Every structure is written in structure tokens, then in C-alpha cells.
Amino acid sequence: MRRLPPLALLRAFEATARHESVTKAADELFRTHGAVSRQLKLLQEHFGAPLFDKEGTGLKLNKHGKALYALVSTVFEQLENGYSKVRDQVERPGLHVACSATFAMRWLVPNLADFYRARPDIRIRLSMTSAREIRTEGADLVIAWDLTSYPEQDRERAIRLAPVAFGPVCTPAYKPSAAAGIRLTHDFTSSAWTHWDQTSDDRIGAGGQITFPHTHLCIEAALSGLGVALIERRLVRKELIDGQLVAPWGFVELPFGLMALPAAGRELPEDLDTFTSWLQTRLMQGY
Fold it and tell me: 177 and 111 in one domain?
């Protein structure tokens, strides 16, 4: 049998302690001043000791009150966050997918219409992040180009979606001086340039480098004529077709691929396998 006081008493205590005022706590809880005062009295009787000291017209936590408030406020915050997540599952059912902002904007969202035509009953909820932050989203499925920095157990259970081919791209006007020009790189995923240097005889970007936090910014910098960016072919297909960018050194398939990492330690939506299978098929079209 649990020896906890009623939750309403703890709510009254938490609000009063936070505001240092019974009046403000009563306003927040839509109760009368007298009702909150009685709840505080009942809680202190249950606790067996005073929790507040009077200070002028307000209240101050004593040492027992401070200890209880530290506990209660943390628990209420965890409860509120957990409740919100569970409620989200009811209000916004579907598959929560996290991926880089560039992949979402340049490939996934433009192709989602194809998925929805086949499966209008499944909804995808996207979280777009930088490569450095992508693992903190709490998503059902994480999509990433390179999992070399992930724990081994994550890499082992990841699902391979498709191979990736990276190539240096620049504007047609930049091409003659590209070898001695500026290399445009990503702040957190420089491994693509490392693999390029290991597999290609072409030394590109000897004139230094400029880094950006998103691949999308690297592409925009290349479009502006700032330098040469090493980009996965799918992400610049339109610019290559339109002639805005050129890839004079071609594309090289790198050893890592585009991977899907399901969340661990919790039940996953039934639609995850359906979406993953669609990704594998769609990503290989026109590769």
C-alpha cells in the first residue's frame, strides 16, 4: 500500500512553493484561497512537520519544504512530459521520423506524395535536425547517411536503405579553378571528404575550406560560386539537371550507406516496416 498523500495536496503545495503565495497558487489552480490553505494544512499533517515559514505576507519554504519541493517539482515535470507524449500518440498517430534537415527538404518531403498515394492511412511526423543532434529526437525511426559515430549495437541493428554516392559539385563558372579553390564542408560529417580523398586521385579544394552546420548551406554556398561542395547525388539532382551545378569529377559510392535506425527499448508502430520498405524502393529509383 502506497503511503503517498492525495495528488491534489501535492499540486497545491507545488504551486504555492513555486509562487511563494497561496493567492497566486489558488488563481493557477482555479481554487479559493481557503481551499488551498486547507490542502496545505492537510499535507503538513500527513507529512508530520511544517513545510513553510511565514515571511511578511508570503510564505517561504523551510528545509523540509525545500527537500519536498525538489522532489515534487521534478516528478510533476516528468509526469507532464510523459503525459504529453502519450497524449500526442492519441492526437497525432503515425510514424515519427527524424532525419537531417537537408534530406527532409531535398528528398523525403518531395517524395512523400508517392508514399501517401500508396498508403493514405499512414501519417509521417518529421523532426528535422542537424547531424550532431539527430540522435536526441526520441523518434521511432532515425535516418542518417553515416552511423560510424553511433554505438556498435545501434549499427548492428540498423537497416540499410540504399547506397550513397558523393561527388564534388560547383557552378560551371567555378570549374576551371576548382582544384585550387575552396572546399565547402559540413561541420559534423567530414567523413565524406575523407573517403573521397582516399578513393580519388583528384585533389580538390587546395585553397582552404569553409564549414557549415547543414549540408543545405553547403549546397547554397556552391550555387553562389563560393567553392566546391561534396554532396550526395540525390540531393542535387535537380541542380545538375538544370545546369546550375556540375560534377566534373563524377560521383563515388562510399562504404557507408543511407541507414534507418529504429528506436530501441520500446514498442514501435506497426507502420515502420511499411515505411522502411517504401524508402528502400524509392531511393533506388533513378540512382
Answer: no
Helix extents (H) in the chain: 7-19, 22-29, 33-47, 63-91, 101-103, 109-118, 152-157, 191-199, 215-223, 237-242, 272-284
Strand-pairing partners, residue 258, are 162
pLDDT at 133: 46
pLDDT of residue 117: 93
- Closest-CA residue to 147 (of 205, 214, 216, 100): 100
Domain CATH number, residue 151: 3.40.190.10
User: According to the model, what pLDDT value does residue 57 have?
Assistant: 72
- Of 16, 10, 15, the closest CA to residue 59 belongs to 16
Query: What domain range is 240 assigned to?
Result: 164-254
Q: CA angle, 107 as apex, 102 and 112 as ends, to 5°?
A: 125
Facing residues of 127 across strands? 98
Considering the domain architecture, whether residues 149 and 262 belong to the same structural domain is answered as yes
The one-letter amino acid code at 177 reads S
The secondary structure element, H or E, covering residue 146 is: none
- Residue 97 makes CB contacts below 8 A (sequence gap 6+) with 108, 124, 125, 126, 127, 139, 140, 141, 142, 143, 275
List of the chain residues with pLDDT < 70 = 1, 85-86, 88-93, 129-137, 176-179, 188-190
Yes or no: say if 16 and 22 are a contact pair by the CB < 8 Å rule.
Answer: yes
Apex CA 131: angle with CA 130 and CA 137, to 5°? Answer: 70
- List the one residue out of 248, 245, 249 whose CA is nearest residue 223: 245
**Cα separation, 220 vs 112, whole angstroms:** 23
Provide the grid cell at 259: 541507414
Residue pair 25/42 in contact by the 8 Å Cβ criterion: no
CA distance 13 to 52: 10
